[in-house]
Write a structure and sequence with these properties.
By secondary structure, the protein is an alpha+beta fold. The chain has six helices and seven strands.
C-alpha cells in the first residue's frame, strides 16, 4: 500500500522538477569579439534612466551576463575580480517572464519565480547580491566591480543602464527568494536607450 501511495507523490515531484527546469534559459556562448574597444566604451559610459521597450535578444543577454560576472578561464575564474577569489557576488536577472539566477558554471538562467521585479520599465533588471561571509568587508567593493563591468558592457554595445542602490528591497528579496545570508546591494536596469535620449546625444 505504501508503495502505491509513493508512486503519485514521486510523479508529482518529478513533474514539478521538470517544470522548473523547463523554465530555465540556456544562454548562448558569449561573443568575445563584439562590441566597442575599451577606450571607446569608457568614453561612452554614462548613466541612463529611461529605456526603449525593445527587448534584448538572447545573444545580447548572454553577452551581458557573461561580461557582468561570467567565467572567462578554464580554472573557473571570472570576468570580475574578487578579494581572495571569494567570488561572493551573484547576479540575478529579472525579465518579463520572471526572476532568474545567473548560473555561470552552466551558462544558464535558472528560473526562480514569475515575479515582476523589473525597474524603470527596462526589459531587463540585474540584481547584484553578495554572499554574507564572516569577516569579509570586501563584498561591497567586489559588487562595485561587477557593476562597472555591466556599465562598460552597456556602453560598448549601445545599451542603456544605471547602477542603483534604491529599490523596494523587501519585495525584491521575496521575489528572488533570497536568504538572510545574502546581501542585496545594487541593481542595474538594462535596455536600449529611449528615443529621447538618442535625440539628446546627437
Amino acid at each position: 500500500m505504501k508503495k502505491i501511495f509513493l508512486i503519485p507523490v514521486l510523479l508529482l515531484a518529478a513533474t514539478i522538477l521538470w517544470a522548473r527546469e523547463n523554465k530555465d534559459i540556456k544562454l548562448k556562448a558569449p561573443q568575445k569579439n563584439k562590441g566597442a574597444k575599451i577606450m571607446q566604451a569608457l568614453s561612452d559610459r554614462k548613466s541612463t534612466r529611461t529605456f526603449d521597450d525593445k527587448e534584448l535578444d538572447l545573444q545580447t543577454l548572454s553577452n551581458l551576463l557573461w561580461a557582468a560576472n561570467g567565467i572567462n578561464r578554464p580554472d573557473g575564474k571570472r570576468t570580475a575580480p574578487s578579494a581572495m577569489n571569494r567570488q561572493e557576488v551573484e547576479v540575478y536577472a529579472c525579465l518579463k517572464s520572471g526572476a532568474y539566477f545567473f548560473n555561470p558554471q552552466e551558462n544558464a538562467l535558472n528560473f526562480i519565480s514569475e515575479a515582476d521585479c523589473l525597474l524603470r520599465d527596462a526589459p531587463v533588471t540585474l540584481y547584484l547580491v553578495a554572499k554574507a561571509q564572516e569577516g569579509n568587508t570586501w563584498a561591497y567593493i567586489d559588487t562595485g566591480i561587477v557593476s562597472q563591468n555591466i556599465s562598460l558592457f552597456a556602453a560598448g554595445f549601445g545599451l542603456a543602464t544605471v547602477p542603483q542602490g534604491s529599490m523596494p528591497k523587501e519585495k525584491i528579496i521575496k521575489d528572488l527568494k533570497l536568504t538572510d545570508k545574502q546581501l542585496l546591494i545594487l541593481n542595474h536596469p538594462v535596455g536600449y536607450p529611449a528615443k529621447e535620449n538618442k535625440e539628446k546625444d546627437k
